[in-house]
Design brief:
Distance between the termini: 46 Å
Shape: globular
Largest sheet: 8 strands, mixed
Structural class: alpha/beta
Oligomer: single chain
Number of helices: 23
């Protein structure tokens, strides 16, 4: 009823199995699926498609332009911008020309961007528009190797920016003549074991490191990855996650070239939930935060609903969870429960699924833990969310739950191409063709990551059950050892607290060498504004709504006027007591030694600018520990500071 069994004889040809390089794979896909949809984008209110033939044509044009500038094998092209077709064209054009492509988040600060472009030795940089051009013009002296900056939205640039001979319109590049024969010849010159892309890690413990991922790494993974999710060429997804991240870049983008499935590019992040209903994708991948926020909003909506509707929802939820638990236990579902579940599905769950278009066969999530309670609810609602695990250095994916083999709360079993084991301290080790080449210009870090036997040391602590399903405990460097000698994993504790209230954005648990655990808690800016509006803490509602729009477009933004709103909301006694109660509720599900005793509510969310989180919203744990050490000291030493959750 809940699990999905993979069909036999899938209607798909995996091009990776026939290809030497990523460019070779792209050419083969365009030849095999010439007139099929590669992507669609929304223009003037309607969805317009581009086929694989058109995709290849545009990519070949960029490749021709690069060859005209004597791009040598291995020369670097950096791409900085939002998730859109031009990103894919620039990436694939660079690869077809024999270059190495480097992705960068548009949210990076000028200094961070300068480090990445300079460290990667990039000759050309492709960017989206004015914000990126402004950053590059400001750091031009620091990126002296860059010969040309190509801009997608050139027509929207300022006169000053367009006056620079360093800045070139994307349309000029696209005027180059496509040359398939030259691209095919260049692919034959490429050694598949050489670097295809460089992906800079988030840098939670220091400057970002450039992970070199080869054609062989990616081709090996793609040759088998699609089997586990039973993807067909007629399937299509929705693209909105950042292309600079390996999940969207390799598993999604290169994965689509491999299988021939298309995608719809969301107009913007705020438009995703609206456009997903229009597009009705069959595959949907996202980070846990999306599902956590969806769950929180569903539960908040139920809390505000009339008593009758609340009763129906809770009845449906109870029956759905009971079915999910029986399925997980491998037990049959009694006839009476099956009937109740069908009614619950018609009354409640079908409407929830409709919010994602109603046709999604596979949801995929990874990169961070997601609470068992949330996973169970979505599976009960007919959302098959498959948790997976991997890392940049292991070419995205090493473990996955898959149709027919699902254990909630785990990241599944090792994929066929990944040899995996646990070290004596339970660190997860990976070996195989998907292990990266090393860090660019950093042999010391490479030697630390890959041992003499070829094992990649992931830095993650894992636990294997008797059936071979892997559970992620926490990062090895994040383990807390209390004054009493107890080893605790903060990620699971933080995750338990975060699910208790939709207001909560981040929870940072502290307690190394301390007698008990404490935490800093931050609030979601959007939820803070909505709370302020609801409780009439804001007079200029128009400005507040505009601020919400900005935050939905760029969750890392700090619009003018946001800080006083956040300070106002976090100072409200009702909010403070609400968060205390959320921590109490989370503590119920934790062991005594894991419970949070006191908290401090920060008056703003963690930010990239303050070097507290990465562009992928991962907390820089070491930085937060150092930055807020005085606050933690006060929590322990000043009885009047912080909010008491439970007695010590």
């Amino acid at each position: 009823m809940l699990d999905v069994t993979p069909p036999e004889n899938l209607n798909v040809t995996y091009m990776a199995r026939q290809s030497r390089t990523l460019g070779d794979m792209m050419i083969r896909r365009a030849q095999a699926s010439a007139g099929d949809m590669a992507w669609m984008i929304k223009k003037d209110g309607s969805w317009q498609q581009t086929d694989w033939r058109g995709f290849l044509d545009h990519s070949l044009r960029f490749a021709s332009w690069l060859r005209q500038r004597e791009l040598a094998l291995g020369d670097k092209i950096c791409v900085v911008g939002g998730t859109r077709p031009e990103w894919c064209i620039a990436d694939m054009g660079g690869l077809l020309a024999g270059g190495v492509t480097v992705g960068a988040y548009p949210t990076l600060s000028p200094s961070q961007l300068a480090y990445l472009i300079d460290h990667s030795d990039s000759r050309f940089v492709v960017v989206e528009g004015q914000p990126e051009v402004d950053k590059l013009l400001g750091i031009r002296d620091d990126i002296s190797r860059v010969e040309q900056v190509i801009v997608w939205d050139y027509s929207q640039l300022s006169d000053e920016a367009r006056a620079s001979d360093w800045v070139l319109p994307w349309d000029t590049v696209m005027a180059a003549e496509p040359d398939l024969e030259a691209a095919e010849a260049r692919q034959q010159e490429i050694d598949p074991d050489e670097t295809a892309i460089i992906v800079y890690t988030s840098g939670t413990t220091g400057p970002p490191k450039g992970a070199m991922i080869s054609h062989t790494n990616i081709i090996s993974l793609l040759s088998e990855i699609s089997d586990f999710m039973a993807v067909e060429s007629s399937d299509y997804g929705m693209s909105f996650l950042p292309m600079a991240h390996v999940a969207e870049r390799i598993a999604a983008f290169y994965g689509r070239i491999n299988t021939g499935m298309g995608t719809a590019f969301a107009s913007s992040i705020p438009a995703v939930l609206e456009e997903v209903v229009e597009v009705r994708p069959t595959v949907f991948g996202s980070v846990p935060r999306i599902f956590e926020k969806a769950y929180a909003r569903i539960m908040a909506g139920v809390a505000d609903a009339p008593a009758g509707k609340q009763k129906i929802f809770r009845w449906a939820e109870q029956n759905g969870r009971e079915v999910a638990r029986l399925w997980q236990a491998g037990k049959p579902v009694p006839l009476g429960l099956r009937i109740r579940f069908r009614i619950a599905d018609k009354l409640v769950f079908s409407k929830i699924r409709g919010a994602f278009g109603g046709r999604v066969k596979h949801f995929v999530t990874g990169a961070a833990p997601i609470a068992h309670e949330i996973l169970e609810f979505f599976w009960a609602s007919g959302f098959p969310i498959y948790e997976v695990y991997g890392m940049t250095e292991a070419t995205v994916l090493t473990h996955a739950n898959r149709p027919g083999e699902v254990k909630l709360g785990t990241v599944g079993k090792a994929m066929p191409y990944a040899e995996a084991r646990l070290a004596e301290d339970n660190e997860i080790l990976i070996r195989g063709s998907i292990v990266f080449k090393g860090y660019y210009k950093n042999p010391e870090a490479t030697a630390e990551a890959i041992d003499s036997d070829g094992w990649l040391h992931t830095g993650d602590i894992g636990r294997l059950d008797d059936d071979g399903f892997l559970s992620i405990v926490d990062r090895k460097k994040h383990i807390i050892i209390t004054a009493g000698g107890k080893n605790l994993t903060p990620a699971n504790i933080e995750n338990e607290i975060k699910t208790q209230d939709p207001l909560i954005s981040q929870v940072h648990v502290h307690g190394d060498k301390r007698p008990y655990l404490t935490a800093i808690i931050t609030i979601h800016p959007v939820e803070a504004i909505e709370y302020a509006l609801k409780h009439q803490l804001i007079t200029d509602t128009g400005a507040a709504q505009a601020m919400v729009t900005q935050l939905m477009e760029n969750p890392l933004a700090v619009p003018d006027g946001l800080e006083p709103i956040m300070a106002n909301v976090t100072s409200q006694d009702s909010v403070r007591q609400r968060l205390v109660q959320a921590v109490k509720n989370g503590n119920v599900n934790l062991s005594r030694v894991e419970t949070i005793k006191k908290i401090h509510i920060l008056s703003r969310d963690f930010s990239v600018e303050e070097d507290e989180i990465t562009p992928t919203l991962k907390v820089k744990r070491k930085n937060v520990e150092q930055k807020y050490l005085d606050i933690f000291d006060r929590i322990y030493n000043d009885e009047g500071f912080g909010l008491v959750v439970e007695g010590k």
